[in-house]
Write a structure and sequence with these properties.
With 102 residues, the chain is mostly helical. The chain has 4 helices and 2 strands, in the order H-H-E-E-H-H. Keywords: Membrane, Transmembrane, Transmembrane helix.
Length: 102
């Protein structure tokens, strides 16, 4: 069952990408829609990051995870190397959990 789901998702992804290439010239989008599409993708990614940060399943993830993400976000904003961002975020969350913060 898992293999079938993976294959179905792979075929669906490939067909959507192929459809974009084949229909790209035929489908004319308005200028307004062409300006809004990149912002919609950014909003979708921000919503996904927000829910992954704040939720663990159906419950609140606690304060350690958002604090780690905040530290990582600040370091990324300050243009720290990616490895430093990831390690600092993980260390922040781990140390807070070690200190008893949920």
């Amino acid at each position: 069952m898992l293999i079938a789901a993976i294959v179905a998702l792979g075929v669906g992804t490939y067909s959507m990408r192929l459809g974009g290439v084949l229909l790209g010239e035929r489908l004319k989008l308005s200028d307004t829609l062409q300006r809004l599409l990149p912002m919609a993708a950014a909003a979708l990614l921000a919503a996904l990051a927000g829910t992954a940060t704040l939720m663990a399943g159906t419950e609140f993830a606690g304060l350690a995870r958002p604090a780690g993400v905040l530290v990582g976000g600040i370091l990324a904003w300050r243009r720290a190397p990616f490895v430093v961002v990831v390690l600092a975020a993980a260390a922040t969350a781990a140390l807070l959990r070690l200190a008893g913060v949920p």
